[in-house]
Amino acid sequence: MGFARTCSVALVGVEGVVVEVQADLEPGVAAFTLVGLPDKSLVESRDRVRAAVVNSGADWPQKKLTVGLSPASVPKAGSGFDLAVACAVLGAAERIDPRVLADIVMIGELGLDGRVRPVRGVLPAVLAAADAGYEQVVVPECTAGEASLVPGISVLGVRSLRQLIAVLTDEPVPEEEPEPSGRPDPMLAGLSMPGSGADIGGLTLDGHGLDLADVVGQLSARTAMEVAAAGGHHVMLSGPPGAGKTMLAERLPALLPPLTRGEALEVTAIHSVAGMLPPGKSMIDTAPYCAPHHSATMQSLVGGGPGVARPGAVSLSHRGVLFLDEAPEFSGKALDALRQPLEAGHVVIARSAGVVRLPARFLMALAANPCPCGQYRALGGECDCPPATVRRYQARLSGPLLDRVDLRVEVDAVTRNELAGYGPRGESTRTVADRVRQARERAAARLAETPWRTNSEVPGHALRTRWSAAPGALDEAELDLERGFLTARGLDRVLRVAWTVADLAGRDRPFAEDVALALQLRTGISRGVPMTIGAER
User: Fold this and answer.
1) How many CB atoms lie within 10 A of CB 308?
2) Residue whose C-alpha is closest to residue 228's, from 437, 497, 509, 441
3) Rounded average pLDDT over 476-495
């Protein structure tokens, strides 16, 4: 009788659970039983592991073999357990000393020839192992850089099971032939996940190279972009086709400051699980930008899929920008499903396989035409849409959703003089991003002893009690509340935007003019203040 154990990690969403992989050999008819709530791809590991062990030059034990995955109540999915199962079997067969395997976490898929193939979710898996107190992990060689992002962990990257056996038994490590240069590497195929619902299109990892100075005119919209980036406020751009709504949204990620290391690990873990980590990039350190098509389903927006739910657009844009172009064309159910993550910063998905909590703290940008033809109220436009059609079109964005949008800006059509360059050229992305960075630093210093980092995250009660505005600054906003122009949530959001405007202007608290600009950006009603910030004002 032989027994050995090692460890691997089961992912539930973007969180990992350390799983003990146990192998037991007993006399009897040769058989291979795998228990512990495995899914179909994990059940198939029996054939992959057997072929990989034999093709790696080791003997397959001709006994009754039982492999258990503990805890048995946690669903296990994917092929990342192959390496741990193979080593546990070899430990039970005494090809490897079982004592060497006990404290090692192994993650990787095995090819039939014994090569170790990469799997998705290596970073969150290694993070889970580190949190559980493990210090050694074995991963496929091409994901060793991703695993090394976790501090305090010793990472061993291997190309094949033969190499791992040699390392664990103190034998000479054989050389593995790399793929010839110029040929596609099939090993990288395991890092992407086509057809999972995560590949929603329009995903980039920065907006650099797209300069805000390229946008002609649109002073109020440019101001809204700056305020949105500085405070993490959601924004809606409404105007006729060709006015520059998409151009503005595409340049929004470049205004955001670089991600901190903690934020970068969060974003990288989500993209690793979704199979959307860029090849050769072990860490994502810039704000992601996700722009799904308006035909996207609710599942692709908030996450889901068969079995354990996978990240959707709201999670892929975590710490970045989610841009919904042609927002009224999206499904009403899909748009209303955004209300929870907009408020809570995460999304909770319940499925028969379990409940998954996915991070989703993103900056949402909406773009919409005023009517189906896009010419309603446009200067010189001829709108043929009946009034009832216009009302129905605009009502596709529900009131509860719009109440969570801090900034609502009308984007007018570009004039001939602006297009010809007769007017003043707008500021560059670098200039605006520098002001945004300074404003975020002021907010971070003010919120240093709190769990919040941006003004958009601060609850209204804390804003009203801990950080007060200048005397009389909120008079106009409170009057709008009494008139029904603002809800209680809307008043809190106006106060958050006013704090962001004050941070951008270098003031220690909001004054009446800051609140007036915040009201103007939210309601679209002129309050007699210029639509500029800082030195321009």
Assistant:
1) 22
2) 497
3) 89
